[in-house]
Amino acid sequence: MRAPIGHFDGARPAPACLDELTSPVADAVRTWRGSVPAEQILYVDTEPEWADTATFVEHYGRDLLERSANCVVVAGKRGGEATLAACVVLSTARVDVNNAVRRQLGARKASFAAMDTATGETGMEYGGITPLGLPGDWPVLVDAAVVDLPYVLVGSGRRRGKLLVPGKAFAELPGAVVLEGLGLA
Transmembrane region positions (predicted)? Predict the structure, then answer.
């Protein structure tokens, strides 16, 4: 199957590639109940050494830069309590942690979670964290620009491989909150 975006050797429906995904991501694909059929979530095999955005677009197509999203784990703190959440913004933007995230989480302070926390709590590899398969009680803050795209490239839970996901599917993830202005240019 030809990938709807990028220059990949091929794309396969994610339900047919569960062995390529980390356990939490495979479980999310297996139990997917969104209005977008799970078969429209696609897996593409990629080289792990090219996982970082700048290197990735050089190898798989510069057009992916504006069609890719990063998923980062943040921690909001208030009164000694910490809330972990995920933020999904286009690769050309950065997460507005100090304003949009802090307000949405009702936190006095918000920051990016430590790598060990992000990987340990998600069960995913650093550089491959994806919004599919996150802990069910986490808020998943999604920039509206991500939802508006026909297809978005995101991590697969591992540094090897990526998922191509219809943008509107992000609004249907457990805990999803779509926000205007979550990503800053």
Answer: none
